[in-house]
Design a protein that fits this description.
The protein is mainly α. Helices cover about 65% and strands about 5% of the residues. It has helices at about 5-10, 55-65, 70-80, 90-105, 120-150, 155-165, 170-180, 185-200, 205-215, 220-230, 235-245, 250-269; strands at about 20, 25, 35, 45. The strands form two sheets. A two-stranded antiparallel sheet has the order 1-2. Strands 3-4 form a two-stranded antiparallel ribbon.
């Protein structure tokens, strides 16, 4: 691949990495001491004077449960944390965690048994319950963001609104949020434009993903793979995703790789 050297340069977050204030996952920080979470895609900028998120310790514990495959424990921990919260960042992070839990349940299937698989059916129904939870969290976050951005839009909140709408596949609302972002050159605006264009299958999105990847943003590698998958260039998408998931903890990349592998296998039949 023409960008194989760029893929090799992906850096793995170390134990001293920052923790995302929205979802508690590790965030790799570049020289500028800022970056995008590879779990929920929130933007993180280090500021030693910023107050510590009181929920961060519990979120980090939930992330540890996820990494250990303890889906039910992670769900219970999240269920206890988010009710009644008015923290937009927490609602956004919780929505992404519920979404990952939903995907983990949906893809935890066994087709090697005989007859109707009760466990498979249970996993799918559980996945649907978790889908309802993550959509509820996204819509709660969006409702608060829409209310707070009517007067003077705050780019951080608008970005979270944009990503929430994108997760819900509401691209027209996402485009409206994108248009509200004031700063044209800030990292969130550039990242959001790349996400939006890739999701629409636009070639300029592909170019912007390459540009951000070469600036050291590992999430852009995922969007490069999404672009290729959307264009049915599955072998390239597979190779990129395999390299990415070997270095970065990004659930969406793991699930996309699963889908790509499944399509590749089906087309061989």
């Amino acid at each position: 691949m023409q960008y194989s050297k760029d893929l090799e340069s992906i850096q793995t977050p170390g134990p001293s990495s920052a923790r995302c204030g929205c979802c508690g996952s590790a965030v790799f920080l570049g020289r500028s001491k800022e970056g995008f979470c590879s779990f929920c895609e929130a933007h993180y900028s280090y500021d030693e004077n910023s107050p510590i998120n009181p929920s961060l310790e519990k979120l980090s514990g939930i992330q540890a449960m996820l990494e250990a495959g303890k889906v039910e424990d992670a769900e219970k921990g999240l269920d206890a944390l988010v009710p009644g919260s008015s923290d937009i960042g927490l609602l956004f992070g919780a929505a992404n965690i519920y979404k990952t839990l939903s995907d983990m349940k949906y893809y935890d299937l066994n087709y090697n048994g005989k007859g109707f698989m009760d466990e498979n059916s249970g996993n799918i129904y559980h996945s649907l319950d978790l889908t309802s939870k993550y959509k509820e969290m996204f819509y709660k976050a969006i409702s608060m963001i829409e209310a707070q951005t009517k007067g003077s839009p705050d780019d951080r909140l608008v970005y979270l609104g944009f990503m929430s709408y994108m997760q819900l596949k509401r691209t027209l609302d996402a485009e409206r949020m994108l248009s509200l972002m004031k700063a044209k050159k800030n990292p969130e605006r550039q990242y959001a434009e790349m996400v939006y264009k890739v999701e629409l299958g636009r070639e300029d999105g592909y170019r912007e993903a390459l540009e951000l990847m070469r600036k050291g943003n590992p999430n852009a590698v995922y969007y490069l793979a999404r672009y290729y998958a959307g264009k049915r260039r599955l072998k390239e998408a597979k190779a990129i995703l395999e390299k990415l998931v070997s270095k970065i903890r990004m659930p969406d990349a793991v699930f996309l790789l699963h889908k790509v592998n499944r399509v590749i296998e089906e087309t061989r039949l």
